[in-house]
Specification:
Among the domains are: 157-262, Trypsin-like serine proteases (Thrombin, subunit H); 268-361, PDZ domain (Pdz3 Domain); 384-476, Pdz3 Domain (Roll), CATH 2.30.42.10. The chain has helices at residues 3-28, 33-39, 73-79, 111-114, 249-262, 279-284, 303-307, 329-335, 399-405, 421-425, 444-453, and strands spanning 43-53, 89-100, 106-109, 119-123, 129-138, 143-148, 157-158, 169-174, 182-195, 198-206, 218-220, 225-233, 244-248, 268-269, 272-276, 293-298, 314-318, 321-322, 341-348, 351-358, 360-361, 384-387, 392-396, 412-417, 432-436, 439-440, 459-466, 469-476. The termini are far apart. Strands 22, 23, 24, 25, 26, 27 and 28 form a 7-stranded antiparallel sheet that branches. A 6-stranded antiparallel barrel has the order 1-2-3-6-5-4. It has a 6-stranded antiparallel β-barrel with strand order 8-9-10-13-12-11. By secondary structure, the chain is an alpha+beta fold. The chain has 11 helices and 28 strands.
Length: 481
Amino acid sequence: MPQHTIRYLVMAVLALMLSFAGTAQAQSLPAFTELVQENTPAVVNISSTQTRERPEQRGPRRGPDLPEDHPFREFFEHFGGPEEGPGQPFEGQSRGSGFIITDDGYVLTNYHVVQDADEIIVRLSDRREYLAEVVGSDERSDLALLRIEAEDLPTVQIGSSSDLEVGEWVLAIGSPFGFEHSATAGIVSAKQRSLPQDNYVPFIQTDVAINPGNSGGPLFNLDGEVVGINSHIYSRTGGFMGLSFAIPIELAMDVAEQLRTTGRVARGWLGVLIQDVNRDLAESFGMDRPQGALVAEVVRDSPAEDAGFEVGDVIVRFDGREVRTSSALPPMVGRQAVDAEVEVEIIRQGEPRTITLILGELPDEMQARQRPDEPEEPEPEPREERVEELGLELRTLDAEEREALNLERGGVVVESLEEGPAADAGLRRSDVITMLNQERVETVEDFRDILADAPRGSSVPILVYRGGSPRFFAFRLPDEG
């Protein structure tokens, strides 16, 4: 067979294989057409108006420097703005999305979409418009429940976010930038994601394109069930950058039911301030690996204090569920009913324990740490002392400083810091040390005594107050000799 004929045959076979591969790949990708057609009628566009105040004018808004006889000089003098004074109110607008959860007009959306709204308009896919009232809202979870006067409305089917798997396809329908009923698809990229200022929501992270206007819209699985509510994006530009976050639908429906029946949301409350456990802290607390939520403070008159929790306890299981990181604990506690009895497994001084307690109700605003009574014992004379081994210069706090920090018992402040184990651990000048190796530090002498008994060559935990908040660090003491 001639060589050019063989070459043509090979090329034909390769072309046929590529064609089959492309067809197989196309067949493996999900088809969203039917899902979008079936669910679009239950997805709504939400627009709201709010009365806002302009920022205070700090100086004149002057026009260009024009000659006296210029025809536009008078215009700029009259309309350039006031010399000074408070800002004038104006009407602002917000846009977002939502979805209908009952055929008699209950609509779920984000709190920030309707926050402080004077008027809310809900627009359906068939162009019908309704004025909506806010049944209730919950800022902590960024959820709001609306009601429109209508019957026999299309509704979404509620699914389960707990069944989602990382890598699973999901689809969003919403109104990005005001473009109504736009569909975007992607995959679940992570679960149980914690965001700053959103401690009580374990977000679903996706790479679905979410932009301003998508907020409050539904996130669907391939079965056409709502598994989340699109709420946040991570962006340095204001637009989509590959990370979006949705509120799990189970949490959202629980909030909606509470808002519908009582008008407010009650959450379980433990009463501890917590932080993550890193490798050095795990070693210092006698743990074989980093896990759990480390208790940095026990709030006074809280369920945790009544149950006997102590600073330095590490919570590893809550109500039978593993606590892998500190961010996993608040959503677990918040979903529990007030007055529920739960078992909490902790590690204390390297030993496992189980504590049973009755949860309280999370206050509207976290209770301030109460100021303790003045100590009856005489005050030690404050003086600075160097701890060469750690590169520290310390001073015992006086009564006024303790009162300002709401400290029940003493403490020592870092006056200066040089190279050494303390600086390597992350301590800073002005940190206030209250515990060392899980023992209370009230004076510099206490610090020295505890340090002398601490194990050499291993990690030692140290509790400091920085900016009024407690935090554990761990430093490694040098070996003797």
